[in-house]
Amino acid sequence: MALLLCLLFLLVSSATACDRCVHQSKAAYFSKATALSSGACGYGSLALDFGNGNLAAGVSSLFKNGAGCGACFQIRCKNSNLCSSKGTRVTLTDLNHNNQTDFVLSSRAFMAMANQGMGQDILKFGIVDVEYKKIPCEYKNKNLAVRVEESSQKPNYLAVKLLYQGGQTEVVAMDVAQVGSSNWNFMSRNYGAVWDTSRVPNGALQFRFVVTSGYDGKGVWAKSVLPADWKTGVVYDSGVQITDIAQEGCSPCDDSQWR
Question: Residue 259 in 3-state DSSP?
């Protein structure tokens, strides 16, 4: 536990501040949402359930080597004649390698920024000026879930994908242990939202997460997640949900209003 708390302190200390600030950039779009669902976070077709298909690829500063996977953003284009002041919500599911824009959106999300009846008009622009901010993710009636990946091979290897992570947070570390045991094994981020370990405990499994949000952070304990007979391709309910909102001490960003 002491090691986990030390790791928590170091990770929180290095966390990016002011995630809630309003940022200015540009956004483009992919014509097919499947291009984003099959992206660097590894969500696959499950991503199409996030935010009604309003998906986004973000630049490396937003992707954060996979820690940004599943993050939610409010984004709107700045052309008031074309776009609504509300904009739309998107979920980050991929890495955007093109630094000319902070985001590449699914066409559904791109069109959702437009005023009513002008969805096709905004597509003609291809790239638009936008402003965006990070917001809490909300998954009503869903807990944080763990999907066992097909590459897992009992008892030598376990790979899991985290789904439906709520709040305005990032999972930056993860441990696994047999239920009832205090012998925790460290898991590594394989890529995106996928974590793995070659030290797989026997029996039913519990997980422990280090979660950061702004300058704050904590440990989250899911006491019984995988049954002893866990199977690949199955999504398991963790029994916990993360609802924390980023605690940020950056001024004057804290006073910035979305108008």
Answer: coil
Amino acid residing at 176: V
> Over the Cα atoms of the chain, what is R_g?
19
Residue 173 has a pLDDT of 95
91 DSSP β-pair partners: 55, 72
Q: Which two structure tokens, joined as six digits, stand for 113?
A: 């920024």
Per the DSSP assignment, residues forming a β-bridge with 163 are: 145
What percentage of the chain carries pLDDT values higher than 70? 84
Contact 143, 240 (CB under 8 A): yes
Nearest to 146 by CA among 234, 227, 231: 234
CA-based nearest residue to 193, from 141, 153, 221, 235: 235
Confidence (pLDDT) at 14? 39
Could you tell me if residue 251 is left (phi over 0), alpha (psi between -120 and 50 degrees) or otherwise beta? beta
Instruction: Name the average pLDDT for the chain.
Output: 88
